[in-house]
């Protein structure tokens, strides 16, 4: 068997911490090789070693059988290794072509020759079925399209081996399907792919083989066809994992959240929430399903007081909280797990302990007459770290140095611990691995079973279907339908999310979809 | 190499490197570095008088450094410390000459006047930043010029067209016979105690109070602070007001201690701008500001002796002092070099 890349017994240390311990990964030509591991298992470190950003302390790397020393990313480029980063490295107001040639601009008589470059980009785009307009400006195109520009960038530079780092993290379900098609096309054209992910479904869908790492250790490589999601999850986490969230029947009580005719504008003054009505009762989880950008963010911000409401009312526990300050909303009994944990959820340069008391630092018993008792902050932090299994060195560690999953657990611990009547969870499991997802889902259900109201916003269909008792589908700022997960298929939900509310359109679309497949 | 060893080595190596490069500069300019540094040393530690004067010089640097550091910790860049210090200077001197009161009332009143004037000068950029998102750097720079010329005009008015006020009444003075006798009649005054107390005040606000918690949170992440229910605008204004008050107190040190009057100025005092370097050298912590101000104050005062005792022109002296401070500030680079060196050693093994 011919290996295009062999990483043999790689060891990488940071001080006393061993990020990669004896990991072996062998990539065959023309395969999609998944690299699976929990958050913080050492996947990114391993790939950064391959890409020349880190130098390993032990082991060797072979490319096409030859031992190589990848001293920096330029060497990786010359060896035909390209990386599609999770967070795109694009200049927003440059065109697609300009972004692709950035750093190696072709010149003619000393002047940048964009025309020829654009032609080459066009040709590559057609060859791999990427459908990218070389002259489009980055900020005007969708996230999925931006990712294809990243792919084109590596192809333009002659990459034979493509590393995809968590490529589906910010994509819609439709875009994920398209990406999978693109990856298969790349393989068909003779490329090889390393796919970094912790999403088991994708691994099962596209990969040929899987290498699993856990806590920096290489666990082994398995053939995808000979395994199943359950086994992979156990390999990754090191124990059995529950997939279908276990939850009993819901016993909804009186209304906690009541939204009437809500209209909210975004910062440009465009209406993003349009006369929206919604209620959430005690003891139930209402999931809001929708494609990103259909008014979810504005809705949450309006409820929590972060954004002004144009018209309509929001009642919590019978109290009018419309346009109240965030602190008043919090004090009215709302907990909020924000969509962007780095922007809103945490002060990253604060210690974990400070972050856990971010909304309660001014209340008794933590502070009295304006003086904070930091012992109390530490006590509270230790309790939440223990109850919510936040893996950290202690309350004094900076939030920045925690892994994403543990940051999220700290936020959830903080919000749940205040025992709010309404818990708003926006994308609570974004970017987390199965172990953490399982934990977070069970906590949300626990809140419900304790008679609290939970509002869940998610772009992941699985999550909405698994956790919610009722699903409110949002499209273009309106709740277009409210369904129950038991009587609705993912297919139907997907169509509702795309705005197809009547049956005729639905059928048309299904037909059209089939036609496209035939092509 | 252990962390503690690195932490100790970095400042030592920085100072040594700074002194070495400074020596090279003196050598190539044709002056003796040995004589130059001896003069610097004597200018700082030569006798009780120079020690007293050095401490006096450190005092306003402490408060200017605190002002910059406090704003920094709240995420704001207060370049207006210079102007806030100037208005504080004027306010204290004015209260000092305008009325005569028992010392127990007069002195605190003059000090408070300085703090209030500085605070007011900080309030304006704070308000503009909070309400209209005008960048505080622009506003504070402009406020510096306003401070300079407004106080000059006021001084002329108060002194009937003269260019300095009369000396303040003794009841408003920070001068201390005890300290003067102790230091062979230097101008050392009680201001150093006020400055050190303020170091404690800054530490207390930042590390013990809910206000400090909010200020730091807003400084790091305004979005998260807003999400957590803090009033971001109020905190921005408060941070600038408190920072301005520290700066104003720095002015009071000059008005009530060193000079006991205020005179019209042809240009900025430089203390406020040096406060930026003091704060950065001290990594914006209260204790660090003590270190930064001591370094700055000592070098600035001690350097005055170099032209007299070693015949080195003041221009060369200023370059040498700047080089030393530059190397102390680039401790980061030296830390990096040390880490590289220890990594190489490991590899060689």
Written account of the structure:
The complex is a heterodimer of chains A (519) and B (349). Helices cover 35% and strands 26% of the residues of chain A. Chain A is of the alpha/beta class and 519 residues long. Chain B is mainly α and 349 residues long. Chain B is globular, with a radius of gyration of 22 Å. The interface between A and B is medium-sized, with 27 and 19 residues.
List the helices and strands and how they pair.
The complex is a heterodimer of chains A (519) and B (349).
Chain A: E1 3-14, E2 17-28, E3 32-36, H1 43-50, E4 58-63, E5 66-68, H2 73-78, E6 81-84, H3 96-101, E7 107-108, E8 111-112, H4 114-127, H5 143-156, E9 161-165, H6 173-188, E10 192-197, H7 200-206, E11 209-214, E12 217-223, H8 229-237, E13 255-265, E14 271-281, E15 285-289, H9 296-304, E16 311-316, E17 319-320, H10 326-331, E18 334-337, H11 341-345, H12 352-356, E19 367-368, E20 371-372, H13 374-387, H14 404-417, E21 422-426, H15 434-449, E22 453-458, H16 461-467, E23 470-475, E24 478-483, H17 490-497, H18 503-518
Parallel strand pairs in A: 3-10, 3-11, 6-9, 9-10, 15-22, 15-23, 18-21, 21-22
Antiparallel strand pairs in A: 1-2, 1-4, 4-5, 7-8, 11-12, 13-14, 13-16, 16-17, 19-20, 23-24
Chain B: H1 3-28, H2 33-45, H3 48-73, H4 81-98, H5 103-132, H6 136-158, H7 177-182, H8 191-208, H9 210-220, H10 222-227, H11 232-258, H12 271-281, H13 286-303, H14 305-310, H15 314-329, H16 331-348
Helix pairs in contact in B: 1-2, 1-15, 1-16, 2-3, 2-13, 3-8, 3-11, 3-12, 3-13, 4-5, 4-6, 4-11, 4-12, 5-6, 5-11, 8-9, 8-11, 8-13, 9-11, 12-13, 13-15
């Amino acid at each position: 068997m011919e290996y295009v890349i062999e990483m043999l017994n790689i060891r990488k240390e940071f001080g006393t911490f061993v990020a990669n311990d004896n990991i072996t990964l062998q990539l065959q030509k023309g395969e999609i090789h998944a690299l699976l591991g929990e958050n913080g298992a050492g996947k990114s470190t391993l790939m950064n070693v391959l890409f020349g950003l880190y130098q390993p302390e032990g082991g060797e790397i072979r490319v096409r059988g030859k031992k190589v020393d990848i001293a920096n990313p330029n060497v990786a480029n010359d060896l035909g290794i390209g990386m599609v980063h999770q967070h795109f490295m694009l200049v927003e107001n440059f065109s697609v072509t300009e972004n692709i040639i950035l750093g190696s601009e072709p010149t003619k008589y000393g002047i940048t020759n964009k025309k020829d470059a654009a032609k080459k980009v066009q040709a590559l785009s057609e060859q791999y079925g990427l459908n990218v307009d070389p002259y489009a400006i980055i900020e005007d195109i969708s996230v999925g399209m931006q990712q294809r520009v990243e792919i084109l960038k590596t192809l333009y530079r002659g990459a034979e081996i493509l590393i995809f780092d968590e490529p589906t993290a910010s994509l819609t379900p439709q875009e994920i399907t398209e990406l999978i098609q693109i990856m298969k096309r790349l393989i068909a054209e003779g490329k090889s792919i390393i796919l970094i992910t912790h999403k088991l479904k994708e691994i099962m869908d596209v990969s040929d083989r899987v290498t699993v790492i856990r806590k920096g250790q290489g666990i082994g490589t398995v053939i995808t066809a000979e395994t199943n999601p359950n086994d992979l999850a156990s390999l990754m986490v090191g124990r059995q994992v529950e997939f279908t969230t276990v939850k009993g029947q819901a016993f909804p009580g009186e209304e906690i959240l009541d939204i009437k005719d809500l209209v909210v504008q975004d910062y440009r003054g465009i209406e993003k929430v349009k006369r929206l009505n919604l209620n959430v009762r005690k003891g139930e989880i209402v999931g809001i399903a929708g494609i990103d950008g259909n008014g979810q963010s504005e809705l949450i911000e309006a409820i929590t007081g972060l954004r002004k409401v144009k018209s309509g009312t929001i009642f919590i526990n019978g109290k009018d909280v419309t346009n109240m300050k965030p602190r008043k909303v919090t004090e009215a009994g709302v907990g909020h797990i924000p969509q962007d944990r780095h922007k809103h959820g945490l002060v990253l340069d604060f210690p974990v302990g400070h972050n856990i008391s971010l909304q309660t630092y001014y209340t008794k018993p933590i502070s009295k007459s304006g003086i904070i008792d930091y012992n109390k902050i530490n006590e509270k932090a230790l309790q939440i770290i223990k109850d919510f299994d936040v893996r950290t060195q202690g309350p004094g560690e900076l939030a920045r140095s925690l892994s994403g999953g543990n940051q999220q657990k700290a936020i959830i611990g903080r919000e749940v611990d205040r025992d709010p009547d309404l818990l708003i969870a926006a994308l609570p499991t974004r970017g987390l691995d199965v172990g953490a997802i399982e934990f977070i889902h069970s906590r949300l259900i626990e809140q419900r079973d304790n008679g609290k109201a939970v509002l869940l916003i998610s772009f992941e269909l699985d999550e909405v279907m698994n956790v919610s008792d009722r699903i409110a589908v949002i499209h273009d700022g309106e709740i277009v339908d409210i369904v129950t997960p038991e009587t609705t298929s993912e297919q139907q939900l997907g169509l509702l999310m795309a705005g197809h509310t009547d049956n005729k359109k639905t059928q048309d679309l299904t037909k059209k979809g089939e036609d496209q497949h035939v092509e | 190499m252990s962390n503690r060893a690195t932490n100790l080595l970095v400042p030592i190596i920085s100072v040594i490197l700074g002194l070495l490069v400074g020596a090279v500069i003196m050598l190539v300019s044709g002056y003796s570095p040995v004589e130059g540094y001896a003069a610097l040393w004597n200018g700082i530690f030569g006798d009780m008088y120079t020690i007293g004067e050095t401490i006096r010089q450190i005092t306003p640097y402490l408060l200017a450094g605190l002002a910059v550091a406090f704003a920094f910790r709240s995420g704001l860049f207060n370049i207006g410390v210079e102007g806030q210090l100037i208005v504080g200077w004027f306010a204290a001197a004015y209260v000092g000459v305008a009325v005569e009161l028992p010392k127990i009332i007069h002195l605190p009143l003059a000090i408070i006047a300085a703090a209030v004037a500085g605070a007011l000068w900080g309030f304006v950029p704070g308000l503009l930043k909070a309400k209209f998102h005008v960048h505080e750097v622009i506003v504070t720079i402009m406020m510096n010029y306003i401070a300079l010329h407004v106080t000059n005009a006021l001084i002329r008015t108060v002194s009937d067209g003269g260019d300095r006020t009369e000396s303040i009444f003794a009841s408003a003075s920070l001068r201390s016979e005890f300290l003067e006798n102790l230091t062979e009649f230097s101008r050392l005054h009680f201001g150093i105690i006020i400055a050190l107390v303020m170091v404690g005040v800054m530490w207390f606000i930042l590390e013990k109070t809910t206000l400090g918690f909010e200020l730091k949170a807003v400084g790091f992440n305004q979005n998260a602070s807003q999400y957590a229910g803090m009033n971001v605008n109020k905190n921005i204004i408060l941070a600038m007001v408190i920072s301005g008050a520290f700066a104003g107190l720095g002015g009071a040190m000059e008005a009530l201690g060193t000079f006991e009057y205020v005179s019209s100025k042809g240009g900025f005092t430089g203390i406020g701008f040096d406060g930026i370097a003091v704060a950065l050298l001290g990594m914006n912590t209260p204790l660090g500001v003590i270190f930064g101000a001591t370094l700055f104050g000592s070098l600035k005062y001690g350097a005055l002796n170099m032209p007299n005792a070693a015949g080195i022109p003041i221009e060369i002296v200023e370059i040498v002092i700047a080089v030393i401070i530059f190397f102390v500030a680039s401790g980061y680079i030296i830390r990096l070099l040390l880490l590289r060196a220890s990594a190489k050693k490991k590899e060689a093994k």
